[in-house]
Design a protein that fits this description.
With about 375 residues, chain A is an alpha+beta fold. Chain A is built from 6 helices and 23 strands. Chain A has a 17-stranded mixed β-sheet that branches. In chain A, strands 8, 9, 10 and 11 form a 4-stranded mixed β-sheet that branches. In chain A, a hairpin with a 5-residue loop joins strand 5 and strand 6. In chain A, helix 4 runs antiparallel to helix 5 and helix 5 packs across helix 6. Chain A is globular and about 85 Å long. Chain B is about 5% helix and about 45% strand. Chain B has an 18-stranded antiparallel β-sheet that branches. A 7-stranded antiparallel β-sheet of chain B has the order 2-1-7-8-9-6-3, covered by helices on one side. Chain B has a 6-stranded antiparallel β-sheet with strand order 14-13-16-21-18-19, with helices on one face. The longest helix of chain B has 23 residues. The chains are: A alpha+beta (about 375), B mainly beta (about 850). Chains A and B meet through strand 1 of A and strand 5, strand 44, strand 48, strand 51 and strand 54 of B.
């Protein structure tokens, strides 16, 4: 007789912009619920858990939980999710306290505006201008630099700066919503919503002034390097070469997320879809969609296991990843399996999103892969596919 | 035996049975922990039935029907208050961070041998008696509470009171081979001589003997008397040593044959005695290089290795220890001569036959103990030291390994430049360099010091962490070092060629030698400790506490400190395979029988010697093939061994990249079973620096993973290390694949600070503890002197630290250090040495009885 250990480890650390100190490495055995999402575009997407505990612990999450660095490990001690706390919803007695989302704060603000000449009748709108950045370093030290570009039309310099400063003042701290329902009181608990570091791509704009064209993967690296918070790993070994030529210049206050999504949408010269996201240790991946099948499912499996394709090796539900192909072995039984083009065969599912819900739930959401988006993007017609 | 049903915090106790406390148990039907929600089931509407996928135990809720009596109402009230206060303390243990005493139940039936304990999580007493009515209101002022129900939520029954433990005896041992050496010589004139084929002259009484091709064809015959090698013994090495009696540099190539007979006859002047009466076999050529190239009178010259020849004679059914063995040395080509001293020579430097053979297997290491004397290495070798030999002036004292303890490690009266040598005879299979020695001294030295040295063409200083302090500390202590890159195998003069280190003596006044006791000196070569099934009982896994101490750390190592900054460990029951090892050496030796390591002939160079590596062997990845996955190294399990490796693991590749850039080379792991299915089983890992002892994390994999059970047999199965290179500039050296089991308990512990002072060093130890109910598991570094907590390590584990109940099991370790260059890089030198102590608290569903 022997026992197998199957507990996941969920660890909370200080926000990475503050340090690397450990806050709690025992969450894995204390949380009430856990939901983890992986997406094909983005990688580690979101993680939500609920925690019941002592009031002071719940208060700690509500007061200082935003931005905490979170890592989830599987039973084999592998990192299977990594991200940060974006929102905390705490219940303490009759009080419901909601803090965040972190990604909606702004502590570096610039206003882009069109000047207006009010001396004419009617006033004439002038050229496009921008203010300098206004920063709140206190907020930046607590949460990292979160940038916001505000676009207005018909403003003069003074008005634009005023808009900038008010925006900064209003947005530099996380929103706190509180509701005190005196008729209802519950035990201390918190729902912690975490996001993957992919979402930090939306928190800064890039200013790439190199002219000419460059390989798409080089531009991906340039965008990552521009991260003002240094959150992303500089290990680019999982960024594959993509010789598709893209414009190197990008200095129009686009967010890194927008630029990356554009690059992903471009695909490659063979119109393959490309994926971008973050894996363990905030290491970015950028690679073409896989051409082989990773998983298999048997609808009639009593245990409803996800398995490694070509074998019956179980993939435990928390280990399921997005961005991979799954084959249904007992669907349309008898049809010959196509070896190359999975898009037209309903037995193949490309996992856009894999959602694990503790203790044993797994949902795979698939989509067919289209090539039109790549073509449109390359023609400059938009069509992001992230 | 005492009957007990007690609630206590360790200080205050209230019995639910004893009238002393006024509480009387009316009835109790003990509860048993049940699975939460009955377990987690998967049920497909397309399949029959349902399948249990997972199960976790909930707490049990005990319900005690009690009666409470007292002399008066106040006394009953006090008793209820005392009980509730104690129970409330049990809750405060869980809901506050600062009340540290758990409250627990103690239970023992009237004839039950053992006591059991259970931590109280919560309690309730729904109601009391009406204070204005019977039975609380009694006519004689006494008071009774009748039909009073106490509900207690508790955890598993425990062997010990919460936070207490019982020592688990662990052992760290290895079956090694012991060798004995014999040196035999002719003992009379007829035992050696020469035969001139040209003149048909036989000379037996000459003071010198030659084999030559100059003036004739002269052969030398030597019979060695009373060779005390047992019949069938495995020969590790054999050679003949000759004392040259003439200087000669003329070209000569010789050959040596053995008389393949049971008991070689003495030489006579009868020609047939040299020819037809003999069975000269198993030719070994003595090439005209090295010690045949040029002889100087008065010097000793050894023949080439004659192991095979001697083995054939010893294997003869008619061979017996003490019989005689004869050799014929003949000129084969060239026109020179070589002359050596005969038995008849006055100097008594006649020929010597040196034979080393396996005597027996010997168990090295520490048998099961609770003492802090069980070591683990950061590698797994089959090699073990074969020799411990004292050099007294110019006289060798013979091999002490296997000779029986106690033994004295230096001459009785040590003198300057006396020494004790420790070595691995490289003449045997599965041999290599070593990086530690463990002593158990009953007598310490006085008035002397030792200098540790190794051979690199000369004896030079070896930088060590000598915890024996020049043999001045009694008890179990170890010596550690980094295996030098220029360490060379040599024969220090005792006829045994191998990797040697020595402790060279410098004396003071009245020096005395050290004495080894209890067990042979050994080197730490295993990365696990064994826990016997009798050490851990109970119905479910036992909670565990683990102490890890580093003995190899040294502040002044030139590059590495050999402190411990990360520990990855995992339990594996040995019922799953006794031949399992977590370290698969990328080497052509030192792997378990049944494990074959093969390499890609194009993309790797042949296995080569490297004295710094775990096995002394290295495989170089030459990155010939670019931009494609190459099956670089294949570990093939025999169908007998394969069963021993079934399981789930976290894999690490220990390797170095030389040249090129980070990212040029990536590795991943594949699992194969049978001829067809090949499964990608793990992540891709790249080198992150070009420094030594890199650890590439290959992630988790399951072997074989398919719907294969241990009663299925495949012709071929195993693991493949694949490599993807984008540049031919770098090369890589591969050392071993470490697979830490993760399908029983496993943990990964490290400080988060990236500060070397937070590592495990000589003066502190890592305490991994799941005995405290409030902490599922925690890892603390404590000061060895006072157990003060120095720092906390981050814990990643698949559950509380637990041991399997009633099962032989091993706890496997892989450790890393923080680079001493100020970077945050983790490295895994194989030279780390740690000791292990373990403690347990067994868990039960219900009654303990006598188990």
């Amino acid at each position: 007789m022997g026992y197998e250990q199957r507990s996941l480890s969920l660890l909370a650390f200080e926000p990475l912009v503050r340090g690397t100190g450990i806050i709690d490495d025992s969450l894995g055995t204390r949380i009430e619920s856990l939901r983890v999402e992986h997406t094909a575009s983005g990688g580690y997407w979101s993680l939500t858990f609920t925690l019941k505990g002592r009031q002071e612990e719940i208060e700690g999450w509500a007061d200082d939980g935003l931005g905490r660095h979170m890592i989830l490990y599987n039973t084999g001690l592998d990192i299977i999710w990594e991200g940060f706390v974006n929102r905390v919803s705490a219940n303490i007695g009759s009080l419901s306290l909601d803090r965040g989302p972190l990604m909606e704060i702004a502590n570096r603000v610039k206003v882009i505006y069109s000047t207006v000449d009010t001396s004419t009748d009617p006033p004439t709108v002038g050229i496009r201008a921008s203010t300098a950045y206004a920063n709140d370093t206190s907020s930046q030290n607590s949460y990292g630099i979160v940038e916001r570009i505000v676009s207005v039309s018909g403003a003069d310099d003074t008005a634009a700066e005023q808009i900038r400063d008010v925006t900064l003042e209003d947005s530099k701290d996380p929103l706190t919503d509180e509701t005190d329902n005196l008729e209802s009181s519950v035990e201390p608990s918190a729902t912690i919503e975490c996001l993957g570091y992919y979402h930090w791509l939306g928190a800064y704009t890039v200013d790439l002034t190199t002219t000419g064209e460059q390989d798409a993967d080089a531009k991906v690296q340039a965008v990552l390097t521009a991260d003002p918070n240094s959150l992303f790993s500089t290990d680019y070994t999982f960024i594959d070469s993509n010789t598709t030529q893209v414009g190197a210049y990008d200095s129009d206050f686009r967010t890194a997320l927008s630029v990356i999504q554009g690059l992903v949408a471009t695909g490659d010269s063979s119109f393959n879809r490309w994926l971008f996201g973050f894996g363990p240790n905030r290491r970015a991946f950028y690679n073409a969609i896989p051409t082989d099948v990773a998983y298999q499912r048997r609808l009639s499996d009593p245990e409803q296991r996800l398995e490694v394709f070509g074998s019956n090796t179980q993939v435990l539900p928390w280990d399921a990843q997005a961005g991979l192909w799954t084959f249904y072995t007992d669907l349309l039984i008898g049809r010959t399996r196509g070896a190359t083009d999975f898009r037209t065969d309903p037995r193949y599912l490309f996992i856009e999103q894999a959602t694990f819900t503790a203790p044993w739930g797994l949902t795979l959401r698939g989509a067919k892969v289209a090539r039109l988006a790549q073509l449109l993007s390359r023609k400059g017609l938009g069509g992001t596919y992230a | 035996m005492a009957v007990q049903l007690i609630i206590t915090d360790g200080t205050d106790s209230i019995s639910l049975l004893s009238g002393d406390d006024g509480l009387f148990l009316n009835s109790w039907r003990p509860a048993v922990v049940q699975p939460k929600g009955g377990g987690t089931y998967q049920a497909s509407s397309l399949a029959e039935g349902r399948r249990l996928a997972d199960r976790r135990f909930a707490n049990a809720i005990e319900s005690f029907d009690l009666k409470i009596s007292g002399l008066n109402q106040d006394e009953v009230a006090r008793r209820l208050q005392d009980l509730r206060r104690l129970l409330e303390k049990s809750v405060q243990y869980w809901v506050t961070a600062w009340q540290g005493d758990p409250v627990y139940l103690i239970v023992q039936a009237s004839n039950e041998t053992n006591v059991r304990y259970a931590v109280i999580h919560n309690w309730s007493t729904p109601d009391d008696e009406n204070p204005f009515n019977n039975p609380f209101l009694q006519p004689d002022c006494a008071a009774i509470v009748d039909n009073w129900t106490l509900s207690i939520e508790r955890g598993h029954w425990l062997e010990n009171a919460p936070e207490n433990s019982t020592c688990v005896q662990v052992s760290g041992q290895q079956e090694g081979v012991t060798y004995t050496s014999t040196t035999d010589s002719p003992t009379e004139s007829g035992d050696d001589g020469q035969f001139d084929w040209l003149t048909l002259t036989i000379t037996l009484t000459g003071t010198t003997i030659e084999f030559s091709n100059d003036t004739g064809t002269i052969q030398s015959g030597i019979r060695f008397r009373s060779v005390t090698v047992p019949q069938g013994a495995t020969i590790a090495s054999a050679f003949i040593r000759l004392r040259a009696s003439a200087t000669d540099a003329s070209t000569l190539r010789g050959l040596i044959q053995i008389d393949n007979t049971d008991d070689a006859a003495i030489f006579t002047t009868d020609i047939s005695n040299w020819t037809s009466a003999r069975n000269w076999r198993y030719t070994v050529y003595w090439e005209p290089t090295g010690n045949m190239e040029s002889w100087t009178s008065g010097s000793d010259y050894d023949t080439p290795d004659l192991t095979y020849s001697v083995q054939q004679v010893v294997n003869r059914v008619g061979w017996a220890s003490g019989q005689d063995m004869a050799f014929l040395i003949s000129p084969f080509s060239g026109n020179g001569e070589r002359v050596f001293e005969a038995w008849d020579h006055a100097s008594a430097n006649e020929a010597e036959l040196h034979i080393t053979y396996e005597v027996s297997t010997i168990t090295f290491g520490r048998a099961a103990t609770c003492n802090d004397e069980v070591y683990v290495a950061n590698k797994h070798n089959l090699s073990q030291i074969t020799h411990c030999e004292v050099l007294d002036g110019a006289a060798w004292g013979g091999n002490l390994i296997g000779s029986g303890v106690p033994y004295v490690l230096l001459p009785a009266v040590p003198a300057n430049n006396d020494a004790v040598y420790f070595g691995v005879n490289t003449g045997g299979p599965n041999t290599g360099p070593f990086c530690s020695l463990v002593f158990d001294l009953s007598t310490a030295v006085t008035n002397l010091s030792v200098a540790w040295q190794y051979w690199n063409g000369a004896w030079v200083a070896l930088t060590t962490q000598d915890n024996t302090v020049s043999f001045s500390e009694t008890g179990v202590n170890s010596v550690h070092w980094e295996q030098p890159s220029d360490w060379a195998a040599n024969d220090p003069g005792n006829g045994i060629t191998g990797y040697w280190v020595r402790a060279l003596v410098t004396i003071g006044v009245g020096p005395t030698p050290p004495t080894q006791q209890n067990r042979d000196v050994y080197s730490i070569v295993w990365p696990s400790v064994l826990i016997d099934d009798a050490q851990v009982g109970g119905d479910v896994t036992a909670l565990m506490r683990l102490y890890l101490k580093n003995h190899s750390h040294r502040d002044t190592f030139p590059l590495d400190d050999l402190d411990t900054y990360r520990v990855v460990c995992g339990i594996r029951s040995t019922s799953r395979g006794t031949d399992f090892t977590a370290y698969l050496n990328i080497s052509d030796e030192q792997n378990p029988t049944g494990l074959t390591v093969s390499r890609d002939a194009t993309d790797t160079d042949a296995f080569a010697a490297d004295p710094t590596t775990p096995t002394g062997r290295v495989l170089v990845d030459n990155t010939t093939t670019l931009n494609a996955w190459v099956d670089l190294v294949t570990f093939t399990f025999s169908n007998i061994l394969a069963d021993d490796f079934y399981g789930t693991y976290h894999a690490f590749l220990r390797a170095d990249q030389d040249g090129g850039a980070v990212g040029d080379i990536g590795y991943r792991l594949k699992v194969f079973y049978g001829n067809t299915d090949v499964i990608i089983g793990s992540d891709i890992a790249y080198f992150t620096t070009l420094n030594r002892w890199q650890v590439l994390d290959l992630g988790t994999f399951t072997y074989p993973g398919m719907p294969i059970d241990t009663d299925d047999v495949s012709e071929s199965s195993g693991l493949i290390i694949q490599r993807y290179a984008t540049s031919t500039t770098p090369t890589a050296e591969l050392y071993d694949l470490i697979i830490i089991p993760t399908d029983e308990w496993a943990g990964d512990f490290s400080p988060k600070s990236e500060e070397t002072e937070d590592s495990i060093q000589l003066t502190n130890y890592l305490d991994v503890d799941s005995l405290k109910p409030r902490h599922n598991i925690r890892a603390l570094v404590r000061d060895e002197d006072n157990d003060f907590v120095l720092t906390r390590w981050t814990t990643i584990a698949n559950g509380p630290a637990t041991l399997q109940p009633n099962a032989d099991q091993r706890l496997w370790f892989f450790t890393m250090e923080l680079a001493s260059d100020g970077s945050s890089e983790l490295r895994a030198p194989p030279y780390q040495g740690l000791s292990v102590q373990m403690f347990r608290n067994q868990r039960y569903f219900s009654y303990r009885g006598d188990r």
